[in-house]
Design a protein that fits this description.
With 242 residues, this protein is an alpha/beta fold. The protein is 40% helix and 25% strand. The strands form two sheets. The protein has a six-stranded mixed sheet with strand order 6-7-8-3-9-10, sandwiched between helices. Strands 2-1-4-5 form a four-stranded antiparallel sheet, covered by helices on one side. It binds adenosine-5'-diphosphate and magnesium ion. Adenosine-5'-diphosphate binds at residues 13, 16, 18, 36, 38-44.
Length: 242
């Protein structure tokens, strides 16, 4: 069974059609990298998966649950999808450990002791065991983003969504975040990653989507599409990002 299924999805903002009749399936363990020009609909594509945006036509099924389901089903669906944003979005008044514990305690009903143990393990996994009592303001951008990844993993999602997770970081801090994402991928997590990091797409991605004007213009193997772009649009795009 696919983890994500888009069925003829149309998303509009007013008159602006941002997702234009998209159908596709994402299977377990796929690492789908999404690229495309600014405004092509990449963030909207991700945000529709965990119902941060609502769609006008079609359906999206996530782990068997429809984005058009009842409020209770939508809450359950959201717990299947961990999301990491460009701007980290950590709670500034909570420590790294408390940020990671928050979801399990408040949305999964896990008791604090167990949540703390699991949060410590996750922070160790992203290399931040020694920083767990620091507040976001005391951490570098790369460290904050690694906390954000640990926080998303803490709810034990079936799927991880990343929206340009390294775009706000200085180049020297990107690597540590990409490394953690690679580790997560290698553990078999299903991932959808919007990024301009073509090296990551090539090395870690199992599939590349090129979005253009609200459509999936290309869908294939990263190495093939990047080495041998089949369309002028993709060639033009790649010249701008690489
Ligand atoms: P990308 O992430 O590829 O840059 P987005 O998904 O953010 O693209 O945006 C796609 C289009 O949808 C753009 O034309 C953008 O202006 C529009 N859009 C995005 N979010 C909103 C919103 N909340 N309200 C109105 N228009 C929006
Ligand atoms: Mg975007």
């Amino acid at each position: 069974m696919s983890i994500v299924e888009f069925r003829n999805v149309v998303k509009r903002f007013g008159e602006n059609t941002v997702l234009d009749n998209i159908s596709l399936n994402i299977d377990p363990h796929e690492v789908v990298v999404v690229v495309g020009p600014s405004g092509s609909g990449k963030s909207t594509f991700l945000r529709c998966i965990n119902v941060l945006e609502t769609i006008q036509e079609g359906d999206i099924i996530v782990n068997g649950l429809s984005v058009r389901g009842t409020p209770a089903q939508v809450r359950e669906l959201r717990r299947e999808a961990g999301m990491v944003f460009q701007q980290f979005n950590l709670f500034p008044q909570l420590t790294a450990l408390e940020n990671v514990m928050f979801g399990p305690v408040h949305t999964r009903g896990v008791n604090r002791r167990q949540a703390r143990e699991e949060a410590k393990e996750l922070l160790a996994k992203v290399g931040l065991e020694a920083r767990m009592d620091h507040y976001p303001g005391q951490l570098s951008g790369g460290q904050q983003q690694r906390v954000a990844i640990a926080r998303a993993l803490a709810i034990k999602p079936r799927l991880m969504l990343f929206d340009e997770p390294t775009s706000a970081l200085d180049p020297e801090l990107r690597f540590e975040v990409l490394k953690v994402m690679q580790d997560v991928a290698e553990e078999g997590m299903t991932m959808v990653v919007v990024t301009h990091e073509m090296e990551f797409a090539r090395r870690v991605g199992s599939r590349l989507l090129f979005m253009d004007g609200g459509k999936i213009a290309e869908d294939g193997l990263p190495a093939e599409l990047l080495s041998n772009p089949p369309s002028q649009r993709l060639r033009d795009f790649l010249q701008h990002v690489t």
